[in-house]
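=== RUN LOG ===
request id: a7f3
mode: sequence -> structure
chains: 1
length: 289
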Amino acid sequence: NKGFSLEELIAAGVALKSERGPGIYDRFRDRLLFPIFDVQDRAVGFGGRTLDPNAKEAKYINSPQTAIYNKSFVLYNLNQAKSFIKDSGYAVVVEGYMDVISSWQAGIKNIVAVSGTALVSETNYSKEEGSGFKYEQVKLLKRYCNEIRLCFDADLAGQSASERGIDLALAAELEVKIVALSQGKDPDEAARMNLVKFKQEIEQALPIGEYAFKSVFKKVDVKTREGKKQAAKFLLAAIAKLPDPVERDFYIKRLARDLDVEEKSLRESLPNPPKPRTNAIGKVNCLVN
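=== RESULT ===
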């Protein structure tokens, strides 16, 4: 144990007390480890991926919160990516370790991961909280850029993470764009399937208004009355989040034209616009639920 006491190993989150008697066991046994560093290049925790495809435990686990590790204040790979983020002017934000590693190996250096898996119980690996972008992580990114590009998984959980990421980025007065993956279930797979296309999709990331319109009109039949109602409901909610009144006005007019409905009706149905935001980045504004 390299001279550390059992209590210190447990407090550091790398070991757990045995339930079968005295002693401890390795929290990350039989797992591939991903060291997690803070922005000052100090190792503060680990992520672990199971090596057994038939394992009943969770595929990924993270270190628990400790005296030196709080997942809300750490972004995986930010210690290496921060200079590239400054140079490019934006950060690509993904969900997991492998998303970062595959992208980094492919030459995409301004990339970080939220890596938000957390154990509900120290001993029950099958119970997990969902991954998600945290407001503190957004504040951390704002030190290095004024724009983020969200590139989360293509499943429902990834879509939910994108929606929350949009709200948090707007709350922090950051520009936010969405990378719409046309291949692969996640950035890791997309980078390995067709790197050129993946890089193009990052470069051509869509502003949130454009992304919302593209997504809705792809899924909803707006030729029907019910389809028009569904599209209007979703897109008006998205438009209401836009902080710029000129941008909101532009998209309301566009929606009226695309749905062939009266602009006045849409304006009457528009949720209340966001309240003026404070310039103090440390204060959470009304966009954060």
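=== NOTES ===
The chain has two domains: 6-204, 208-289.
The first helix runs from residue 6 to 11.
=== END ===
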